[in-house]
Specification:
Catalytic activity: N(6)-octanoyl-L-lysyl-[glycine-cleavage complex H protein] + L-lysyl-[lipoyl-carrier protein] = N(6)-octanoyl-L-lysyl-[lipoyl-carrier protein] + L-lysyl-[glycine-cleavage complex H protein]
InterPro entries: aa-tRNA-synth_II/BPL/LPL, BPL_LPL_catalytic, LipL, Octanoyltrans_LipM/LipL
Largest sheet: 8 strands, mixed
Number of helices: 7
Function: Catalyzes the amidotransfer (transamidation) of the octanoyl moiety from octanoyl-GcvH to the lipoyl domain of the E2 subunit of lipoate-dependent enzymes.
GO molecular function: lipoyl(octanoyl) transferase activity
Shape: globular
Structural class: alpha/beta
Radius of gyration: 18 Å
CATH topology: BirA Bifunctional Protein, domain 2
CATH superfamily: Bira Bifunctional Protein, Domain 2
Helix content: 25-40%
Strand order of the largest sheet: 7-8-9-10-6-2-1-11
Keywords: Acyltransferase, Transferase
Strand content: 15-25%
CATH architecture: 2-Layer Sandwich
Order of helices and strands: EHEEHEEEHEEEEHHHEH
Distance between the termini: 48 Å
Number of domains: 1
Length: about 280
Amino acid sequence: MNHLLNQKSWRFIDQSIVALNRTPLESFAMDDTLCHLVGQGMSDPTIRTWVHNETIVLGIQDHRLPYVQEGINFLEQRGYQAIVRNSGGLAVVLDSGVLNISLVLPEKDNAISINAGYDAMVDLVKSLYPEIQDDIKAYEIVGSYCPGSYDLSVEGKKFAGISQRRIRQGIAVQIYLCIEGSGSERAELIREFYQLSLKGEKTKFVYPDINPTVMASLSEILNREITVYETVLNLQKLIKFNGDMKLQNLSSEETEYYSYYLNRVFERNKKMLNSND
């Protein structure tokens, strides 16, 4: 087990039950809050699981697309909302078959490099799926959406992407795991979004040329139906096996920090989206 995962005590916050009126912006505010709390020694290291209904989470570069509003209109017609996140660079898909895991660690006493944070998440995922752990590779999958050097794949089929957020000496390593459904269908949606948002124009930033065939869900990779629910349970069992774990939501005092970060995230997202008007 990765040394960063060998914590004496873990806090576990499970928000994997989809709430119809909950936006991913709330999840980004929650991770910012946990970074603050964990980084300042006000909370144990924390693992949070979260799921949202149909949402396309745009990256910093996406809101600069020349015809991004047309792309957003297309997504809304397909039943998706669009938001801009505060970590990572390009668009990803969230829905009820995609599980997000946030690994929140402190670096107040010992600095954690960017790669070390990513490696900890890779090792956590490999431990979750021991039957394919030797087949899981971390490298950029060209043709995937939101490509990066820590894309997780099996035999060239990407099922996960990782990003990081750092605040007040706390680090949130965030991963999306495509567990249920079709990975290629999600990729096709993003491919059409970019086509409509670019219309063939050349831009300073090079957006991905998406090939849906390079993406798959873990159910497709394992050739059996697995669910978000069972993955959350397996994650809890894994953490309990390696140390003490407490299921613990925010206290009333911690909620005050959350309100601050939530307001900041909402204001930032509003500003980013309005900049395209």
